[in-house]
Automatic annotation (TrEMBL):
Membrane topology reported for the UniProt record: Multi-pass membrane protein
Localization per Swiss-Prot or TrEMBL: Membrane
Organism: Clostridium bovifaecis
Membrane spanning residue stretches: 12-30, 42-67, 79-101, 113-134, 146-164, 184-204, 225-247, 274-298, 310-328, 334-357, 369-387
Protein name according to UniProt: Divalent metal cation transporter
């Protein structure tokens, strides 16, 4: 029995970790990682290092308080400030829906590269596959397994591209610790892309749904959280190295599709097909993660919503796909939501840190001081940079 329980626990711990990581690794993640490496070269390693530290600060705090309080993000927010949970849920759902339009588009592009089918048709096929995961009787387990398989495939094939691109690893390591250029905007963008909006809550909410909660389960939560951050960071590092290998040989990336050009320049036509596979895996797992987590933010508001959770997730995917098929990718919406996404993290993380000191939420639990300091630091940095981004983005939208 103990063995069976251990196996089940590991499956849930890994499932939550991969759900968080594959939610983070979407089409935007691939494009940003390759574009920023193209711009900053080996110094992008420093931005990755800082972003990993900030990611850990954000995720550890949020996951821990969700597990200790045995409540979801929006329920905790409503207990800290009445009504705040509804506001956060609204931001997360709007952000999730907008990003899902991009995710569905990315999945369509992936199938277009792999099989030559039209991107819109590819998007519809991908949406049907994602919906299929939620139609399975034990949808939670199916989602965990799917995220693990797709995440594993992505990492393995990207390792192959890194080997063929033969990057200057020594230079990459040196510049990670002593960069030539430090670009703060790059750091904010990739932190927002790894822990912004719904992504931070994907793993914590999944652990709750699987019954991992209470102080006794903090060690399991820690394992899951570190594994999730580790998987997302490993993928970021692999993309960085693959791109560095390509640009160090004097090649120029295609600005229209930087990740595709990295894979193609590194490994020829096979590389281009691998890009299609990576893009599709990244996009479809983000479609699933975004839909699941966005709906987990509203299902606690009424018994009817909770009862029809699967149906609402499916409708969420259908709406994203319909918008992409009819409108295409609404660029301005995505820019605005991207900027708002950067602001969700300081609001949610700040709320969680306040919650950690409220007995009616966490009982007798004592939150470690170093984690509070770490979390507050992330809140201050991300709030400042998020507001700065928003101020710069909004005028361009209405210009």
């Amino acid at each position: 029995m103990g063995d069976k329980n251990n196996k089940m626990n590991w499956s849930v711990i890994l499932g939550a970790a991969f759900l968080m990581a594959t939610s983070a690794i979407g089409p935007g993640f691939l494009t940003q990682s390759t574009t920023f490496t193209g711009n900053l070269g080996a110094s992008f390693g420093f931005a990755i290092l800082v972003s990993i530290i900030l990611d850990v600060g954000a995720q550890l705090n949020i996951w821990r308080i969700i597990v200790v309080a045995k409540k979801r993000g929006q329920e905790i927010a409503n207990m800290v400030v009445p009504g705040l949970g509804y506001f956060v849920a609204f931001l997360v759902v709007m952000g999730g829906l907008a990003f899902n339009i991009g995710n569905v588009g990315g999945a369509g592009l992936g199938l277009n590269v792999l099989f030559g089918i039209d991107a819109k048709t590819g998007a519809i096929i991908s949406a049907i596959i994602a919906i299929g995961v939620f139609l399975v009787k034990e949808a939670g387990k199916a989602m965990d397994r799917f995220a693990q398989i797709m995440g594993g495939i992505m990492i393995l094939v990207t390792v192959y591209v890194v080997i063929t691109s033969n990057p200057p690893v020594g230079v990459a390591v040196a510049k990670t610790f002593v960069p030539e250029t430090i670009d703060m905007m790059t750091i904010v963008t990739i932190v927002g892309g790894t822990v912004g909006g719904y992504i931070t809550f994907a793993g914590g909410h999944r652990l709750l749904d699987a019954g991992i909660k209470g102080e006794k389960d903090i060690p399991k939560m820690n394992r899951s959280c570190f594994t999730g951050v580790g998987i997302a960071s490993l993928m970021r590092i692999l993309l960085f190295l693959a791109t560095l290998g390509v640009i160090s040989k004097g090649f120029t990336l295609d600005p229209a599709n930087p990740p595709a050009s990295v894979f193609k320049l590194a490994a020829g036509n096979i590389g281009y097909k691998i890009f299609g596979l990576v893009m599709w895996s990244a996009a479809i797992t983000s479609v699933i993660g975004s839909a699941y987590t966005s709906v987990s933010f509203i299902k606690t508001f009424s018994a009817k919503l909770a009862k029809n959770e699967k149906l609402i997730i499916i409708i969420f995917i259908i709406i994203s796909t319909a918008v992409f098929s009819i409108v295409g990718k609404p660029v301005k919406t995505l820019i605005l939501v991207g900027a708002l996404n950067g602001l969700i993290l300081p609001i949610t993380l700040g709320t969680m840190i306040v919650a950690a000191y409220k007995k009616n939420i966490v009982g007798e639990y004592k939150h470690p001081l170093w984690m509070t300091i770490f979390g507050v630091l992330v809140v201050v940095i991300m709030a400042y940079l998020g507001i700065d981004t928003l101020i710069n983005q909004i005028p361009t939208l209405f210009a």
